[in-house]
Amino acid sequence: MDQQKPSAQISVDPDLPPPKGAPTSAKKKHWSWAVGFLLICAIFYWGFRHPVQQPAGQGAAAGGGGRSGFSGPVTITTATATQGDIGVYLDAIGTVTALYTDSITAQVTGVITAVHYKEGQLVHKGDPLIDIDPRPYQALVTQAQGILERDQNLLAQAQMDLDRYKEAWAKNAIPRQTLEDQEKIVLQDRGTVKNDEGTLRYNQVQLQYCHITAPINGRVGLRLVDPGNLVTANATTTLVVLAETQPITVVATISEDYLAQVMAQPQRGLNLPLEAWDRTSANKIATGKVISFDNQIDTTTGTVKVRALFDNAQGTLYPNEFVNTRLLVTTLHNQTLLPSSAIQHNGAAAFVYVVQNSQANTRSVKTGVSDAGKTAVQGLNPGEVVADSSFEKLQNGSKVAISETPLPNSPSEGKSP
Length: 417
Fold this sequence. Notes:
The chain has 417 residues and is an alpha+beta fold. It has helices spanning 25-49, 58-61, 135-170, 176-208, 259-263; strands spanning 74-76, 78-80, 82-98, 101-105, 110-115, 122-123, 128-132, 211-213, 218-220, 230-231, 238-243, 248-255, 273-277, 284-293, 303-310, 322-339, 344-346, 349-356, 359-371, 374-378, 385-387, 398-402. The strands form four sheets. It has a six-stranded antiparallel beta barrel with strand order 3-12-15-14-13-16. It has a four-stranded antiparallel beta sheet with strand order 4-11-9-6, with no helix packed on it. It starts with 24 loop residues before the first helix and ends in a 15-residue tail after the last strand.
């Protein structure tokens, strides 16, 4: 039997340093960590630059996974394209303006004796408003009447003398000069009587000015004077302000760019409907008709003023109130209408998700006029059903499930009528 050679055993003293060039355990760990970190970085970089491509149609076959990785059918609400009419409106800001506004001042001097109106009262033409002490003017009227009566009698006397002179002249009883002088005296007295009549009428008018009445139907403002106040004729102090509010007008401004389109309508835009809405454009206040256009364009704003008349029977419009206006220029008929919330945009392009056989497919459309939450579109037929919610989950070919109730945060909720 061959004898085995004993293996050489080398004992290493742990206290001695390792041989020169031999790697230490610390260096081995350091290099292993570095290599592992670099390998992980390389894997992540390759995965970022080369994502896993899903085969075409796989998402639809798996149940219509959407843009955010949803699985199963996408629950949506739908809208149906309809055929109808839609108006072309011009939106503008407007101001409610009283049809007439009268600032009444005193035309005679005197002390106010009575104020007949109440603040904010609706008055009619001829209703008493303010009385000024009439006694001085009544005295002037009486004086003028007396002078007139005296001069009328003088004229009558001169006329009788003229008649006598004519008879005497016919008998050659008086000279011709006496007759002619009497004729001129009669003419002078007639002139005096006319002057007296004018003075009497003037004083009567001054007396009427002491009783101020409403010149128009309207609403009076706050009381500006009190009984006992002294007012002066033709002064700038306003006694009462009266504004006619039934009917009332709204003055709006439209851009000169649309003026030709408005003037092309029948009667050059007159009688076009104009709607007044509140400040938030949420509630329609009233509807009136255009009655006039300004005769020039404002060069600083490039706009033209339009005045519309409102009957304002309920008093909902108030003078100087700010309103948003909508001028109906024309009405488009037989248009395909769709809720504006169902139309999606990709830059300048518009599209919808047409729902057929529980599947949503994209279709490009051309949008037109929008009004009251609806938009006229081309590229869609009346009766076709489109998606109206859950657009963030949809893509071309997605499987869908139609919900009968509005979804939370659905665009179809809270639409303005």
